[in-house]
Amino acid sequence: MSDSENKLITSIVIPAKDEAATIGGVLDDVIQYADEILVIDGHSKDQTRSIANSKGVRVVLDGGLGKGEAVRLALNEAKGDILVFIDADGSHEASDIPKLIAPLLANNADLVTASRPRGGSDEMTGDFDRFIRWLGQQIIMLAINYRFGVRLTDSQNGFRAIRRSIALKLDLKENTTTIEQEMLIKILRLGYRATEVPSHEYERGAGRSKISLKRAWLRYIYSWLRYLYF
Ligand SMILES: Nc1nc2c(ncn2[C@@H]2O[C@H](COP(=O)(O)OP(=O)(O)O)[C@@H](O)[C@H]2O)c(=O)[nH]1
Ligand SMILES: [Mg+2]
What we know:
Elements (H helix, E strand, L loop, with lengths): L9 E7 L6 H8 L5 E6 L6 H7 L3 E4 L5 H11 L4 E4 L11 H9 L5 E5 H4 L8 H21 L11 E4 H4 L11 H11 L4 E5 L14 H17 L1
Parallel strand pairs: 1-2, 1-4, 2-3, 5-7
Antiparallel strand pairs: 4-6, 5-6
This protein binds guanosine-5'-diphosphate (GDP) and magnesium ion.
């Protein structure tokens, strides 16, 4: 979708690892909003790549380091002025893409995150793991809000839109999902504008989350403090 006034090109980037059950539906849902679609595949062992290929979209393999690396790769691979990141698991509401990119088209923001606390989430409650993730995200968000004098609600959602030229200036380093908080913190630290729109998060369509809290929690704390204060 091109904005006729600004003539900004929109690339939709879908990081995907073993999401054969849902990737086809996500591609069908996002196509109407995209000038370009890029699937960054994490060496899926299922049919994810062939399904994406059959839909005629470009598929790029990541280097096997994680979702963060996939996001970093996309910054150079995508052609668009605006990058929309959306997960391949069916958790996100594709019809929210226009309101996600609207603040960028209007030049009112440089990063727009889809907010689950504002839009509701089916994935943030229900068991102990989810409770810890919710609590962790609240604590991380609180510190970011106090540090930069903002009042945001979601530092972690992968459903977001950013101006590509600015994303390239952030010198993003994280290889895993910690890239979401790194991106937000660096945007604010460099004086760029972050905003949010409400968006509902659904249960992933199939399979399990690729995030293992047991393996990831230390990196979340390290990268949070590192980018926030040092
Ligand atoms: N390219 C790539 N995508 C990944 C990788 N790990 C996860 N993803 C994708 O990133 C998105 C978010 O992962 P998910 O497991 O749903 O995380 P959660 O929503 O936080 O539980 C999904 O579309 C995954 O398929 C990876 O190593 N490489
Ligand atoms: Mg998910």
